[in-house]
Design goal:
five-stranded mixed β-sheet; D-Maltodextrin-Binding Protein, domain 2; single chain; Arc Repressor Mutant, subunit A; repressor; about 325 residues; alpha/beta
Length: about 325
């Protein structure tokens, strides 16, 4: 019986035919990833010259790679004019997929490096300014001390950012989770409290849900109108509470709602963690403290990719533990 070996086996041996094919595929893939990065840079910069400056390459190299990419794909990605570049329909779709692919490639590389050096790369996180200052930034500061090779970027915004387009790894969101294409991890819960200043309450007494429904309300611009919540009464009955008057004031941040309430402008429904200091100082009063408005939740949203980077998993676990300990 003849032992296995011969030319067929040599093709799979190190340095053989199969390995050469694999190396060729890897080289081609790396070249494509480089071209994807150049394409994304051109889109974000708006022209070849600015992209070349960002990438530290010549305009000719950038232009050549875009032409090669379009040739390989067989479609036009950019519509060129004398004044500016714009994406074609195919280019827009390809741009979004390029962002995802480049992010996944970076995540894989970060995880490989972690095996030898710990967490590295960049962790980019967004949250509202208020909750960022209250919890996210302190947690990030502690997390950074544990992972000195990891670069951390925190962006405060009252707007809900596009995680993919703006390249965020994690978004911390508060409230009730709407349908999303992203993954969501629930971190904690918090109460919301109707509050008003002593000055406002001196002008308008509020000792019942009926009086609260007729109050002068200050609301977040993201809330639907008319305002309506399920409220649990002292008798543990769930009743539908409807605000009977249109909102007197609206704002796009919880900080503005708090400021309006402190200045006697009306009633605001605020997170307990935000209203608590003013309540303790007597600057605000909690209305109907024996009633309970719906509990809200804190979520970590992250892109729904096949490979969830270790830096994302590690920070979500860290933040959940941080919140649980009340730090």
């Amino acid at each position: 019986m003849q032992c296995s070996g011969g030319k067929a086996a040599d093709k799979s041996a190190p340095g053989g035919y199969t390995v050469k094919i694999i190396l060729t595929v890897i080289e081609d893939s790396m070249l494509n990833l480089q071209r994807l990065a150049i394409f994304v840079a051109v889109v974000e910069a708006g022209n070849f010259t600015a992209a070349a400056n960002t990438l530290g390459q010549s305009k000719a190299v950038v232009s050549f790679n875009i032409k090669q990419l379009e040739s390989e794909l067989g479609v036009s990605l950019l519509a060129r004019s004398t004044r500016k570049l714009s994406l074609t329909d195919a280019g827009e779709r390809f741009y979004q997929r390029s962002l995802r692919l480049l992010q996944e490639a970076e995540n894989v590389l970060d995880d490989v490096r972690r095996d030898h050096h710990g967490l590295s790369g960049t962790l980019r996180i967004t949250s509202t300014p208020e909750y960022g200052a209250h919890a996210v930034v302190p947690a990030l500061a502690a997390f950074a001390q544990l992972h000195p090779r990891l670069r951390i970027q925190h962006v405060s915004s009252s707007q809900h950012a596009d995680l993919i387009a703006e390249r965020f790894d994690v978004a911390i969101r508060l409230g009730r989770m709407a349908d999303s294409n992203h993954r969501a991890a629930r971190l904690d819960d918090f109460a919301i409290l109707p509050v008003a200043s002593p000055d406002y309450l001196a002008r308008q007494q509020i000792v019942s849900l009926a009086q609260l429904a007729q109050a002068q309300w200050i609301v977040h611009s993201r809330l639907a109108s008319p305002l309506s919540w399920q409220v649990v009464t002292p008798q543990r009955q769930a009743v539908l509470f409807d605000v009977e008057t249109p909102a007197a004031l609206t704002a796009d941040s919880a900080t503005a709602l708090l400021a309006f309430a402190l200045h006697g402008a009306g009633v605001a429904l605020l997170p307990d963690w935000l209203a608590r200091p003013a309540l303790q100082r007597g600057q605000l009063c909690q209305l109907l403290p024996d009633h309970r408005f719906p509990t809200q939740s804190i979520y970590a949203l992250y892109p729904n990719t096949r490979h969830v980077p270790e830096k994302v998993r590690a920070f979500i676990d860290f933040l959940r533990s941080w919140l649980a300990k009340g730090e």
